[in-house]
């Protein structure tokens, strides 16, 4: 009974989260004395998974699965789990996998724990540590079903090389018409060069930026750092920035290595969505802004003064270290 992971890809290319859940599953597999099987759907090159401990890939290539479809993908994962007689399925906490995981759990009559942030505390009984209350606390959850599904919180474990010998197998699931009861009609991609989901660094702007005409500051800082751009809810509500950039409790969750908040007050609903980021930097004129309470580094200052100087310094640093 191999551990099954669903290794996600975008436009045929494996995503970073695939390597993180592979690294995680390998470590758990070592504890359980088993192997790791990865399911891929329309991924072009899966060999890289060997670097992170995957022993076998079940490779699905099917035009019907070209776009993400939670019901159909969950059915495919179920069939793969049944073929492999899997007792543990590991998914990421990406936007797609958050939809998928509960469906997979229902399909397999499995217990499901989301937002897992560490290796199992125990394997018998099976207990995992999870984020709770918008990352302000954690809990230990015990899953007692025969099959278990867990969703690993993004950026919580890390990516570790642990090479294995990979075998690749073509996997042809049976797709039913009712797998496609719900279809995605269109996808609107955010225009940023780096997507928030994949970014190591996110530069985010709030109402303190005064208007959309000043977003060059955010974009220039993001460009020099190779970061994605994001914004607070009012900024997207006002139409200053596209909704795809809205982060927070009701927007996209961010669990990045570095989150830079500029002119954002740090309301609880904003913090709830970005709190899992490793290092948080805030630039705000108001020393009493709530964001400073959760920030690792804070600059009390005017964004229109601080950010251009920061960009200048970063450019000079990059030039010196090129
Ligand atoms: C149900 C619900 C869900 C919500 N979900 C979200 C969510 O997902 N995400 C989200 O972001 N919000 C969310 N909100 C809104 C949230 O409560 C706040 O209103 C919002 O986050 C505030 O946005 P802001 O910090 O950009 O603006 P403001 O609160 O107006 O703060 C602007 C900040 O900029 C600073 N500033 C002003 N001028 C400058 C300058 N020149 N340089 C530097 N700093 C400056 C100010 O000191 C201030 O701290 C939600 C609210 C509700 C009720």
UniProtKB/TrEMBL annotation:
PANTHER family for the chain: ELECTRON TRANSFER FLAVOPROTEIN ALPHA, ELECTRON TRANSFER FLAVOPROTEIN SUBUNIT ALPHA, MITOCHONDRIAL
Q: Which GO terms describe its molecular function?
A: electron transfer activity; flavin adenine dinucleotide binding
What is the protein name stated in its UniProt record?
Electron transfer flavoprotein alpha subunit apoprotein
Q: Name the positions where FAD binds.
A: 207, 263-270, 284
**Source species, please?**
Flavobacterium glycines
Q: Which InterPro entries match?
A: DHS-like_NAD/FAD-binding_dom (IPR029035), ETF_a/b_N (IPR014730), ETF_a/FixB (IPR001308), ETF_asu_C (IPR014731), Rossmann-like_a/b/a_fold (IPR014729)
**Which SUPFAM superfamilies does this UniProt record tie to the protein?**
Adenine nucleotide alpha hydrolases-like, DHS-like NAD/FAD-binding domain
Q: Name one GO biological process term.
A: fatty acid beta-oxidation using acyl-CoA dehydrogenase
